[in-house]
Amino acid sequence: MGLIGMLGLMLLLSGCAYIGEPLPPALKIPQAIADLRAVQRGPNIYVDFTPPALTTDGLTIATPGPLEIQINGSTPAEKVIPVGPWVGQRIELRARTKGASGRLSDWSNTVTLEIVAPVATPAAFEAKPVPTGVELTWTGSAAAYRIFRDQVLLATPERAPYVDTTTEYEKKYEYEIVGINGAAESERPAAVSVTPIDVFPPDPPTGLTALTGVASIELSWDRSTALDWAEYRVFRDGQLLANSVSGPSYSDKTVVSGRAYKYSVSAVDRKGNASPLSSIIEVTLP
Prior knowledge:
The protein is mainly beta. It has 3 domains: 37-114, Immunoglobulin-like (Sandwich), CATH 2.60.40; 123-194, Immunoglobulins (Immunoglobulin-like, Sandwich), CATH 2.60.40; 209-284, Immunoglobulins (Immunoglobulin-like, Sandwich). Helix content is 4%, strand content 41%. The protein is built from 1 helix and 22 strands. Strands 10, 11, 13, 14 and 15 form a 5-stranded antiparallel β-sheet that branches. The protein has a 4-stranded antiparallel β-sheet with strand order 4-3-6-7, with no helix packed on it. It is rod-shaped and about 120 Å long. The relative contact order is 0.11. The mean pLDDT is 92.
């Protein structure tokens, strides 16, 4: 072989790429469901989970495959299971999915439920402002209830009514309720909304007393405990005598010797809500 031939052969050999062993076909088996969960709600058991996103080969699953659910290792089921046949029993749920190749994933985690008679949905659920907050009322036969405010669990009372004392005036709230018996829940009635407005007056003042002076009658009473108290109003013989009184006392200097007077007092909040009148005290200026 001449020099030119040798050079051509060397160039041909250097241009050949290495071909490795052929890769086996992807099995396309979905990864096992890792977060199977279930809840008894009303007359049904609801099964939920996050569909596997990858195969066991690490390939992306574009479309989740068919789902297989079993009760107690053998009974096939759907994602919504009527509780009727299972009341009073302890059941175990598991699930798996099928890949594009037709191969099944491993079984998921197991979920165990104690099935009880369906929990009745709370009825007549209402919310109304009261002086101490928002009062929630309902009827029902559940062992206890979960109350949610703006979708956050607020309380778990055993019976109605329940008063939410953490509200603010002129702020809208939405409440939901669900009955519970163990791990079982009722279905939820429609949510109720309320915007508390301050229409509630303080309690009437107490401890009203009167002392006579040289040419006056000196009144005093217990200080109001209302957080939004603003002022007092003093009444004489049923008529307004003074308003914007800033403290729990008042000196009436428009009195006549030898005449009897009847006094009462009202507390007023910052919204102008006036309390009922206090008890009446009668005094005669000497």
